[in-house]
Amino acid sequence: MADPSRRERCEPKGDIVTIAKRIIPVLTACATAGWLMISSPSAQADAARPDPQSMKTGTTVQAHRPALTCAYKVRHVRHSSFLNVRRGPGVKHRPVGRLTMANGRFAGACSASRGWVAVKTRNGRLGWAHARYLHRVHSTPAIRIPDLACAYQLRKVHNKGYLNVRRGPSVRYRPVGRLRVADGRFVGSCGSRHGWAAVKAANGREGWASTHYLHKVN
Which residues does the UniProt record annotate as the domain SH3b (predicted)? Predict the structure, then answer.
């Protein structure tokens, strides 16, 4: 317990000049007696500084998300399972969506942040997924579609089969639609490019099909 007599000395008396002369000794005595405490900022104050807005709402500050200009597929995940997409780059962040093998391609950042990649789920939610379960797909840019001023029909295609309409004039481009014999006539470009003609698929998507399987009607 502190000395009561010292506590009394912690209450300055007299005029202003007297107080000024005694202020330093009084403060020293009060600090020694335990009646005065001087605090200093914590050395860890800058280690984790919460956002003022998050303190009001009780939410975690979302990490900066880069541009999603690359394409990915899920890997190392069973077809019956899923990959969590989280609100930030780490398991401490809550899930905001899921990715599965059946989703196919989806957009993502071209680089990882501490082992996590910013991605966009099939339902349009933005978040982060672990890079270990993502496979980056190197896509080839699409070729400009010329005017579709001619008409075609399929040839050398079985009645129960179909012809792929691809994103570009080569088999290395991914399919964007299909054409079947039952579709009858469809529009296409009047010229070809390396054995491929621009056409409109049955789903309305424009792409390229091999002229080997096309018969120009007019």
Answer: 152-218
